[in-house]
Amino acid sequence: MRVLLTLFFILGCFSLSMAQTTAPTYSNEFLSIGVGARSFAMGNASVASQSNVEAAYWNPASLVQIDKKYDVAAMHAEYFGGLSAYDYAGLSVKLNKESAIAFSLIRFGVDDIPNTLELIDKEGNLRYDRITTFTSADYALLISYARKTGIKGLNVGGNVKLIYRHTGDFASAYGFGIDLAATYSTSSWKFGALLRDATSTFNSWVFKTDQLEEVFAVTGNEIPENSTELTLPKLILGVSREFQLSDKFALLAEFDADFTFDGKRNVLVKGDPVSIDPHMGIEASFKKFIFLRAGVNNFQEETDFDNSKSWTFQPNLGLGINYKNFRLDYALTDVGDQSIARYSNVFSLAYSFD
Fold this sequence. Notes:
Blueprint: H1 2-18, H2 37-41, H3 55-58, E1 70-79, E2 84-94, E3 99-115, E4 132-148, E5 154-167, E6 171-185, E7 189-196, E8 201-207, H4 213-219, E9 227-231, E10 234-244, E11 249-260, E12 275-286, E13 290-303, E14 309-323, E15 326-332, E16 345-353
Antiparallel strand pairs: 1-2, 1-16, 2-3, 3-4, 4-5, 5-6, 6-7, 6-8, 7-10, 8-9, 10-11, 11-12, 12-13, 13-14, 14-15, 15-16
């Protein structure tokens, strides 16, 4: 146990030091979207309360709380009016009473993008028959492990992340990163902590510029060079509590806060280098069979055309049904179009078994 705590401390200090290096403020953002309609409905407030296969993403330390030996889940969502697709599939395996592993696959992509590099031939003629299509997609494989500690209620875990990103035949990148996580629970309270990209996640980009050099030269664009991209650490803390209202009704509430260390961001608490992005959600249940959920997140300050400023937020609603080890969840994000984000319908299906 002392070795684990020492490792957490060393990696935390390393993460804060890495945060002072020069790196893009936003990198690998497709891994910040989230997984599971339950979490979307609750404003992505799931670091403390999530306790199924989707916990591999939100807090892998919670995997040991899964009752069944196997838990599988899948999710599909579309963004930007259906132009892009976001998909997730996960599998968790309970090794024994003390430990569990999980595998998660995430894809965010835009398909059938027109490639007009060859639209105009050497004689200056438009050749629509020469238009082809390509795909720009990001993939991530999460390999998760969780284990109970000698302290009652305290679990630890982590993710190893393998990333592949590509834009047609023009560019591709391979990445690697590590997440560290812990949970602590009492009879009613649950606390969660996730240090995402604990050692910073590295993406190594390779550009194939043979097809681009002539077009870039004509248009005056700079030809990209092979490079390494860093995703700096993010600390997410969460606390949740369940209230048993009666034999049939229960209420769960969670509050999370994301701490970023890469400079001032457009969030509720802006700072340099530390910014804090809070989000919260509630879940009401009847006999653990039907669940009604609501959450709010994505607080941002917008500037209007007359330079006036106002705050926006993203409200979400959702519904869940648990029946004979099956879980069907639905979320409607950005209800009422209160933020600059477009609303999305998110569905996820899960099944647990021995």
